[in-house]
Specification:
By secondary structure, the chain is mostly helical. The chain is 63% helix and 5% strand. It has a domain of 73 residues. The protein starts with a helix and ends in a 7-residue tail after the last strand.
Length: 121
């Protein structure tokens, strides 16, 4: 009885979590298989994160502007404003796409897709 109590305490619950269930979706070659809705959701989430990261980079570059020569500061400010505008314009579609992907594809049966083996930067 003394030895079984610590062993029982170390056992994990039998109920699988969402991460466990996702890890079990492998094809015959051992590659990860996503539903098309799940894959679209992951892609749009990463897209929104990258747009947010770009916006923060442009915001942090404003601090760098103080160290430039006065004649170059105005040109640099134009570049910063243009970059912020582009990221703001890209942010809303990324968020909208993430919302659509999270709502799921309820009209059609989802297709299964293979996850990419290598991410190309």
């Amino acid at each position: 009885m003394v030895h079984t109590a610590p062993e029982h305490a170390r056992q994990q619950p039998l109920k699988s979590t969402a991460l466990d269930r996702a890890a079990k979706k492998l094809d015959l070659l051992g590659r990860k298989v996503y539903l098309s809705v799940e894959l679209q959701f992951h892609i749009t989430n990463y897209q929104a994160l990258l747009v947010k990261y770009d916006f923060h980079i442009y915001s942090n570059l404003a601090e760098f502007q103080a160290f430039l020569l006065s004649d170059k500061q105005q040109d640099f400010q134009v570049l910063l404003d243009e970059g912020k505008l582009v990221t703001k314009m890209n942010f809303q579609p990324a968020v909208d796409a993430a919302d659509i992907a999270s709502s799921g594809d309820r009209c059609h049966t989802p297709r299964r897709l293979l996850a990419p083996i290598v991410w190309v930067p």
